Amino acid sequence: MEIDRKIIPPHGVPIQLAFEEPDKELLDNGMEIHLIDAGNEDVLRIDVVISAGSVYQNKKLTATSVGKLLKEGVNGYSSSKIAEIIDYYGAYLDISVTKDTSTITLYSLSKHLEHLIPVISKMLREANFPNEEVQIHIDRKRQEFLVNSEKVRYKAMLEFNKLVFGEGSAYGQILDIDDFDLIQRSDLLSFYHENYHPENAYIVVSGRISSKVTKLLNKYIGLNWKSNRSANQYVPEKGISGDKEKYIEKPDALQSAIRIGRPIFSKKHVDYNKFLLLNTVLGGYFGSRLMSNLREDKGFTYGIHSFVTNYKNAGFFSVSTEVKANVTGEAIDEIKNELNRLRTEKIGEEELNRVKNYIYGTFLRTFDGPFALAERFKSAKDIDEGFSFYKRSLDDMLQVTPEALLGIANSYLVPEEMITLVVGNYDS
Fold first, then answer.
1. Single pTM value for the model
2. What distance in Å separates the CA atoms of residue 153 and residue 304, rounded to the nearest whole number?
3. For the chain, how are helix, strand and coil distributed in percent, rounded to 5?
4. Which end of the chain is more exposed for a tag (fewer CB within 10 A), N or C?
5. 39 backbone φψ class: left, alpha, beta (φ>0; ψ -120 to 50)
6. d(Cα 127, Cα 95) in Å, to the nearest integer?
7. Is 136 exposed, middle or buried (0-12, 13-18, 19+ CB in 10 A)?
8. Separation CA 222–CA 121 (nearest Å)
9. Which parts of the chain sit beneath pLDDT 50?
């Protein structure tokens, strides 16, 4: 059979997503443990999620430094000893810190858990942040900051964050070079003892789960990690909003970084799913309108995309690109033209069906395997939801009409209401 590759294959018919919610158990210290039993290999992923992100810090760099230094020394174990144990058992240990959470993630063969969970337990209870390790970490981060600060993309990311959430807000805080001289070991210890406690955390286990997993977690974490602290944390207030337009000049820059966007509502908002689909049409995938216009047609940029970022108590929408400096003004005009086109012209059925099928395929891919399921579950749990949230979201997006999207665009994609930031060499 000869295939004509110029003809797009017909779209498949979406099937109904059906996911069982993870089993939930409680450890002796009251911590929730969510069990996603899936997969055929004897490999497990354990995520310990703590509400200890940067929004809760009183001094910049504290949250990320605490998270990254957890495995650099605990009572009885030096950083080299921890690394030796992880390496010996063929495991992988990672710690990620976001604005909302700090997450300790362990990948391991099931048979080695009894040797590895005690290390996690000590990191949660007995991290000591050795002075030498703290200084090495701060010096390394300072150097990274100095290097990145020369990049228009990095400066735009930081400044846009401040413009969206407001100067002085927890979500809008950005680093300055002086911050690296202010952080002390005592700041890390204080943040660690105030935020790392079981009332402020939960565990997700994914993979092929046996009955011994919960018992081991309870033995080393449920029985040992105790606190009487309250789990209620301060929800950050909004900061002071500045100008809608800002230009940061870098005369020697060959490119300009452009960010155009606005604060946006939470995942539970009635318009969220429609807006997510509309964002995909605009710049959420390789075949989007922004890519077709500014990359394929005009040749202004290698890549441009729009995205929606959600945190626990905030979120934003942004168009992001880096363009040749001499076309900065034209690129901004074209981005705003595409925003206005969504407000004045209904999306055609063919394009809408193509985007819906792309979204459907993306959903299937991001739920493929136990570890992917763990990621999706954690994201839903941030808003006190489970897997059923995704089924409702997908159903909502697959049923949306061009008329509904036109209304969403007129409500939320008004260029005059957007923040416009340029970092680079902008000769308008």
1. 0.90
2. 12
3. 45, 20, 35
4. N
5. left
6. 14
7. middle
8. 9
9. none
